[in-house]
Amino acid sequence: MAVSMTTPNTVLGVLLPKQGSARLVANVVTVVLGSLVLAAAANLKVPLPPVPINLTTLAVAILAAGFGWRIGVATVALYIAEGLSGLPFFANGGGWGYVLSPSFGFIVGYLPMAFIIGWAADRGASRSAVRLFAWMLIADAVVFAFGFAWLLVVANMILGGGGELPSWLAG
Questions:
Q1: Are 10 and 122 in contact (CB under 8 A)?
Q2: What is the 3-state secondary structure (H, E, C) of 139-159?
Q3: How does pLDDT run across 43-67, given as a tens digit for each residue?
C-alpha cells in the first residue's frame, strides 16, 4: 500500500492528480518549485546583524499549510540541501560555511516548522483560520528556539576560540 504524500485537507491534496506517475511528477515539481519560492523569499531581506529579516518564515508557513507535512518538509529539506551545495539560496549566500553563520539555526528550524504546520493542516486545522494561526505561532516559536540556540552556539565558539564577540552581540 502506497503512502499518499498529501491529504484532501490541503490545497495540494485537492489539486493534484489522485494516482499514478502523474501524481509523482506533480509532487516532485511541487517540491522543486517550493524550494525556489523559499530561495526567493530568503533574498527579499532587510540586512540587519546578526540575522537578516526576510520572508522565508512566512513562505515556509504558507507552503506547509498548503502542501501538508510530507511535501512541506521535503520542500524545506531540498531548500537546505540546495543552499548548502553552494547555491545562493540563503539570505547571505550559501555553501557549507553557512553552517557556522548565526542564522543557520533559523534555517534548520524551518524543518520542524514545516512539519508542525503541515501536520496540523493535514488534520484539518486549515478549515479554521484561528486554529491554523495558533499552530503557526507554535511553529514560529520552535523556529526561534532553534535560531537563538544556534546563535548561542556560534557565540560560544567565538569566545572559546579566544575571539571577541561583535558589539551587537556583546551586550
A1: yes
A2: HHHHHHHHHHHHHHHHHHHHH
A3: 999 988 888 899 999 999 999 999 9
Chain centroid to CA 121? 16
At 2-33, the pLDDT tens digits run 456 667 777 777 777 777 788 888 889 999 99
Nearest to 42 by CA among 82, 85, 99: 82
Backbone angles phi, psi at 86, to 5 degrees: 115, -10
Q: Scan for cell 540563503, then name that residue.
A: 90
Q: What angle do CA 154, 163, 156 make, to 5 degrees?
A: 30
Helix (H, G, I), strand (E, B) or coil at 24: helix
Amino acid at 90: F
Q: 61 near 113, Cβ under 8 Å?
A: yes
Beta bridge mates, 93: 90
Distance CA 117, CA 111 (A): 10
Q: State how far the alpha carbon of 35 is from the alpha carbons of 56, 73, 76, 82, 170, in Å.
A: 10, 10, 7, 8, 35
Check if the beta carbon of residue 58 is closer than 8 Å to that of residue 41: yes
